DNA sequence: CTGATTTCTTGATATAGGTCAAGTGGCCTT
DNA sequence: AAGGCCACTTGACCTATATCAAGAAATCAG
């Protein structure tokens, strides 16, 4: 089993034959550190799986950037509203390190259900899982302090803390880099 | 076309025959003001469509309640993680007014795809749409002040402001009722 | 290795929004 | 219509977090 198939298996309940078929639609793609996987306003006509590297999803506002999410090895990446509903992308997606991806283009994405009968149901479950995760994230803003949100992210995503400038992590948590610095210092004592 | 079919049509791309089939799975349900549609920890074995009334989705914390969402006429309601992944419900869902629903139980929900070939794909699109809406909501916490979040909700959901105690709306926006009061006064001047 | 950038930390100060407490007003219930 | 809730508003004060500015540390380019 290839590495991609191995990862697909961890997300989706497919047999070996379906795994092979699904994996065959994905092609290698490389994004150099600092380059863009996607830019705001463009059509996001692809869905990718991150093999190595790290991507930052963010929006340019008038006076600052807001980081919506940071995605690393083992995660999928796309702008769902653009891919599925053919809207212009809301996000910029930039590589924070050299990044290797497996990418399926929209044409193949749209016909994968013709080859794998369970595809739509399986994808539905996957998106539902993403939805539930986002519900938890909304809840964290309603119910937690900055320090609690920081701790939860740190416990669940230690890997990004070594690789990503603090300012981006702070933005994604809805706080400033100074606040993270102070939380860290407080927790040393 | 029944009222339910009419609403289903507004969300889903089904022909009349499919609409009739889907609608036939939903049965009327009534929840009296103050009563619960769902309680934390129980299994949510149903999905409902709100015909009239209003429901509050919330969590009991040690020292307070946090309102995650308020759902009214024309919206679907369930705890997705419980319905789809058979987890215990995270939310309490309580009627803030007498509420009439059309409800499909989990047994029927699980077999609806056997009758409507496009069901899984259609439901996938619907859940994807919900996901995109939640992404926007997360973004509002990352990028907006309390006043901006209040204004956006007010523009988009005027109907709930007449019917729902301010404290619940405030909680769902991640602020206190006093803050909403002050925002309102400021905007009068 | 060195200078230039970028990132991180720290301190001083500012502010959005929270907390607490009192008062007002609406609207059920009897 | 009187009493009793609730919900809402307002004021005084407080606190978590932001902002601004400077310096320290890390990283990068040559």
UniProtKB/TrEMBL annotation, chains A, B:
<dbReference type="GO" id="GO:0016301">
    <property type="term" value="F:kinase activity"/>
</dbReference>
<protein>
    <submittedName>
        <fullName>cAMP-binding domain of CRP or a regulatory subunit of cAMP-dependent protein kinases</fullName>
    </submittedName>
</protein>
<dbReference type="InterPro" id="IPR036390">
    <property type="entry name" value="WH_DNA-bd_sf"/>
</dbReference>
<feature type="domain" description="Cyclic nucleotide-binding">
    <location>
        <begin position="10"/>
        <end position="112"/>
    </location>
</feature>
<keyword id="KW-0418">Kinase</keyword>
<dbReference type="InterPro" id="IPR014710">
    <property type="entry name" value="RmlC-like_jellyroll"/>
</dbReference>
<keyword id="KW-0808">Transferase</keyword>
<dbReference type="InterPro" id="IPR018490">
    <property type="entry name" value="cNMP-bd_dom_sf"/>
</dbReference>
<dbReference type="InterPro" id="IPR036388">
    <property type="entry name" value="WH-like_DNA-bd_sf"/>
</dbReference>
<dbReference type="InterPro" id="IPR000595">
    <property type="entry name" value="cNMP-bd_dom"/>
</dbReference>
<dbReference type="Pfam" id="PF00027">
    <property type="entry name" value="cNMP_binding"/>
</dbReference>
């Amino acid at each position: 089993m290839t590495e991609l198939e191995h990862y697909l298996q961890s997300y989706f309940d497919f047999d070996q034959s379906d795994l092979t078929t699904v994996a065959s639609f994905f092609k290698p793609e490389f994004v150099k550190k600092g380059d863009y996987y996607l830019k705001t306003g463009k059509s996001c006509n692809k869905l990718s799986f991150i093999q190595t590297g790290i991507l930052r999803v963010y929006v340019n506002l008038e006076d600052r950037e807001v980081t919506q999410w940071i995605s690393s090895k083992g995660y999928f990446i796309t702008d769902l509203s653009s891919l599925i509903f053919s809207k212009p992308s809301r996000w910029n997606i930039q590589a924070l390190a050299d990044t290797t991806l497996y990418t399926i283009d929209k044409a193949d994405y749209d016909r994968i259900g013709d080859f794998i009968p369970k595809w739509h149901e399986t994808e539905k479950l996957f998106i539902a899982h993403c939805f539930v995760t986002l519900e938890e994230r909304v809840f964290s803003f309603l119910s937690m302090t900055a320090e609690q949100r920081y701790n939860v992210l740190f416990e669940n995503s230690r890997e990004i803390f070594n690789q990503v400038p603090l300012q981006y992590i702070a933005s994604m948590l809805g706080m400033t880099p100074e606040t993270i610095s102070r939380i860290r210092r407080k927790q040393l004592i």
